[in-house]
Amino acid sequence: MPSGPHGLRALLNNAGDYLGQRVTLHDITERKAAEEEIRRLAHFDPLTMLPNRRLLFDRLEHAMKNSERNQQYGGLIMLDLDQFKKLNDTLGHEMGDKLLLQVGHRLRDSLREVDTVARLGGDEFVLIIEGLGSHETMAASRAEQIAEKIRDALARPYCLDMQQEDEHLYTASIGLTLFRGQHTSMENLLKQADVALYQSKDAGRNRVRFFSPAMQAHIEERAQLENALRLGFARKEFLLYYQPQVNQYGQTTGAEALLRWQSPERGMVSPAQFIPLAEEMGLILELGEWVLHTACQQLKAWEAHPQFARLELAVNVSARQFHQPDFVESVQRCLQSSGANPARLKLELTESIVLENLDMVVERMQQLGALGIRFALDDFGTGYSSLSYLSRLPLDQLKIDQSFTRQLVQDSATSAIVKAILAMSRALGLQVIAEGVETLVQRDFLESQGCYAYQGYLFGKPMPISHWEQDQA
Q1: Contact by Cβ (8 Å): 376, 349
Q2: Residue 218 in domain
Q3: Same domain, 17 and 53
Q4: What is the spatial distance between Cα 149 and Cα 68, in angstroms, rounded to a whole number?
Q5: Which residues contact 173 (CB under 8 A, 6 or more apart)?
Q6: In this structure, are 465 and 326 located in the same domain?
């Protein structure tokens, strides 16, 4: 009867007499190799040959059961490489793969046989550390020592091209959480390690950070705000407020359009809270285009009212928005679709915009300036101000930041800075507007130093268009 890889068959002559047995052998080497390859592909990362996500979950479940049985803590470490995308973009994916292979070797060399190193994908690795002890404080200390050892190992120079023998330095951000038993699900443990990793990056990268409940609450709130932000844009919950800009005679010369979010669930959400998040999410591009389109429509609507027809409207532009390849075309589309006069539109740029790729910025400003659009440099003096780029940019106006305006007269150093800004602006032929003007003392000081344009609560708070037109009528 057949058995295993071979079969036995009786041999008989024509008379039916038993002569012996025939043995049939089958070579199953290829089948076994194919089965092994299937197992390898199912459980191991093809590049580094480290366990993949599927095997990681198996190992983690086993580690948690061991922890439950022996009442010892284990640690879950999540790490990724700092600036790995930049490496791929500059040196190519082949070099990126070589780095990942070396990282995998260093991680294996840093741990015991009983521990697990897995690659989740990209430059993200997860490590399971077992047997850290039964006391939480001691376990945390041991886990941190292991994580710091790993961080040091990964920070050593890498040789990615043996022919050139150049050494490259890369670091890792590391998040760490502890577990004992099976009280927390595997998904939650990974989430905790990921939260700690986010905290490490937020602290400046190349650091080890422990998971903290407060950080998780912050992350969850952030995720909820992201969802609300997307939903709010889809529901058209955003609107523009307008704050008047006036001259030295108190006459309104224009306004700044300011984005506001009126959420039914959250109320009026502070721009300081949602604008940085919108930038990180990429939603700032859609929001920015909506702001520009709405502002141009408002400029066109003002042309029908004699008291508003000559007003200028200032619109803030984010760095991400300005550096989009089709930014000039998108501004042109807004002007054409609305019919607004470009000469009444002023784009406010921050120093972070103009310091990145100055030649491209100048060219783009010149293209927009040819349409009649004017430019103001917002928050001047709060960043890395430099006279060298000011002389090259086709600016019309500098905007003194409200942080300076508030300290006028009270602080002699601030007053001296404002005087210097005004003197420099005159030398460069630039107009100046001061924001955050709240008192007559501030306004009078500015006028005495040659600043004749103001914006602030002394002249009017930001308001929706219905209130604006009532207030200015």
Answers
A1: yes
A2: no
A3: no
A4: 27
A5: 79, 80, 82, 197, 200, 201, 205, 206, 207
A6: yes
What does 341-407 look like in DSSP terms, one character per residue? -GGGEEEEE-HHHHTSSHHHHHHHHHHHHTTT-EEEEEEETSS---HHHHTTS--SEEEE-HHHHHH
Q: Supply the pLDDT for residue 72.
A: 94
CA distance 108 to 104: 6
CATH of the domain at 301: 3.20.20.450
Kind plus residue range of the DSSP H or E element containing 104: helix 93-110
Nearest Cα to 288, choosing from 257, 244, 266? 257
Together in a domain, 34 and 86: no
**Both tokens assigned to 112:** 């015991």
Q: Which domain holds residue 154?
A: 47-211
DSSP H helices in 131-171:
136-155
Task: List, in sequence order, every beta strand (DSSP E) within 1-135.
Answer: 6-12, 18-25, 74-81, 116-121, 124-129
Predicted TM-score (pTM) of the model is 0.65
Name 376's bridge partners: 348, 397
Mapped onto helix, strand or coil, the DSSP state of residue 153 is helix
Structure-model confidence comparison of residues 437 and 140, the more confident one: 437
Mind listing the pLDDT tens digit for each residue in 77-95?
999 999 888 888 788 888 8
CB 295 within 8 A of CB 313: yes
| Residue in this structure with the two tokens 């990724």, named with its chain if needed | 80
Tokens 């009017």 identify what position?
460
Q: With beta carbons less than 8 A apart as the criterion, state whether 428 and 391 touch.
A: yes
Q: Are 310 and 325 in contact (CB under 8 A)?
A: no
* Closest among 420, 458, 455, 426 to 441, alpha carbons compared: 458
SS3 content of the chain, % helix, strand, coil (to 5): 50, 25, 30
Q: For residues 393 and 78, what is the distance between their CA atoms, to the nearest angstrom?
A: 45
The count of structural domains within the chain is 3
